[in-house]
């Protein structure tokens, strides 16, 4: 399978999007009053109709039932993209090993709910899973069914919360624990861990961060130390991203402080980022300075042109010529966009 190109399934975003889709698809008769929206669009009503079959039967039934469903061509939102890869992992006995990539495969197709019915999307996933040999194929289908039932149960839980806000970390933690328990009700422990471990680690970190920010008994130094300790439990990619964000935020401060000493700034970049990354940053800084210089010259001539009293067609033609004078083809798009918000 090819790796995903346009769809990068960042887990928290995926969950928010898919939960919203499932909630929209939930039949109105099964929602509390707080979950209703009077201004439902025709789009949402269509999703309600698409999902009605899952309300009549558990979604897992769609996995076990073999039906004639048209799966030719991809939904519009998936056109030009590739399926997530790395999900077809088995042990030496041919048993399926659950991975986060398998969940990404499910979500890849489920993200098109509304464009296609749930039964169509399940048929698409079944077709992909058919590439597996037994016993992994049957185990993957069973996992899909249980995952779909979990998603439906999750939509009901979210609907029960309604629009009520959270009163504090205690309420947020309660809801987090309820969702974690729900996952382990529908999925076995290994699958729940593989599917949600990173997301749950991030949730715990966010709760801890919020709690620390509200703890007035801590000094700033104690708070930073506790936050750094909590950060160590984050998944490695997330931890690296946070470290890089802090590093680049500090770079902005240092760059401003050393604006008049380029050699000192160059040495600092090499020490902090390494030779290759430091050179890239230096090139970007040079490009930005060059852009700023050209933009200032352009803006001065543009303002004079706008004040010249030319008629609209002549003024626009002159502005286009002015942009061509100062900017490349791609830069002219940026310049025009900036002009539009002046």
From TrEMBL:
InterPro entries linked: Lipase_chaperone
Key words of the record: Cell inner membrane, Cell membrane, Chaperone, Lipid degradation, Lipid metabolism, Membrane, Transmembrane, Transmembrane helix
Primary site of residence: membrane
Pfam families with a match to the protein in the record: Lipase_chap
Subcellular location: Cell inner membrane
Topology with respect to the bilayer: Single-pass membrane protein
Membrane-spanning parts: 7-25
Function description: May be involved in the folding of the extracellular lipase during its passage through the periplasm.
Family statement: Belongs to the lipase chaperone family.
Entries under HAMAP family matching the protein: Lipase_chap (MF_00790)
Protein name: Lipase chaperone
Organism field: Marinobacter salexigens
Higher taxonomy: Bacteria, Pseudomonadati, Pseudomonadota, Gammaproteobacteria, Pseudomonadales
């Amino acid at each position: 399978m090819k790796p995903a190109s346009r769809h990068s399934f960042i887990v928290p975003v995926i969950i928010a999007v898919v939960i919203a889709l499932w909630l929209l698809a939930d039949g109105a008769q099964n929602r509390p009053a707080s979950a209703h929206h009077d201004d439902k669009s025709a789009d949402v009503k269509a999703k309600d109709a698409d999902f009605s079959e899952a309300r009549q039967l558990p979604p897992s039934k769609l996995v076990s039932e073999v039906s004639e469903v048209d799966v030719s061509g991809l939904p519009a939102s998936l056109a030009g993209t590739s399926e997530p890869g790395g999900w077809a992992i088995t042990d030496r006995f041919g048993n399926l090993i659950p991975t986060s990539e398998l969940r990404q495969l499910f979500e890849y197709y489920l993200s098109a709910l509304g464009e296609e019915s749930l039964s169509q999307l399940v048929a698409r996933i079944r077709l992909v899973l058919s590439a597996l040999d037994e016993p992994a194929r049957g185990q993957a289908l069973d996992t899909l069914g249980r995952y779909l039932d979990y998603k439906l149960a999750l939509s009901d839980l979210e609907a029960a919360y309604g629009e009520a806000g959270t009163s504090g970390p205690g309420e947020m933690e309660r809801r987090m624990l309820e969702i974690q328990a729900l996952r382990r009700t529908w999925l076995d422990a290994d699958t729940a861990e593989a599917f949600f471990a990173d997301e749950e680690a991030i949730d715990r970190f966010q709760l801890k961060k919020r709690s620390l920010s509200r703890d007035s008994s801590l000094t700033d130094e104690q708070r930073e130390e506790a936050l750094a300790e909590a950060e160590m439990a984050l998944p490695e990619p997330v931890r690296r991203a946070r470290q890089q964000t802090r590093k680049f935020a500090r770079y902005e401060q240092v760059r401003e402080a050393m604006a008049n000493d380029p050699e000192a700034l160059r040495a600092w970049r090499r020490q902090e980022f390494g030779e290759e990354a430091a050179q890239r940053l230096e090139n970007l800084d040079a490009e930005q300075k060059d852009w700023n210089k050209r933009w200032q010259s352009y803006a001065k001539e543009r303002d004079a042109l706008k004040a010249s009293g030319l008629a609209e067609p002549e003024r626009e033609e002159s502005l286009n010529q002015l942009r061509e004078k100062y900017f490349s083809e791609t830069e002219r798009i940026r310049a025009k966009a900036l002009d539009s918000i002046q």
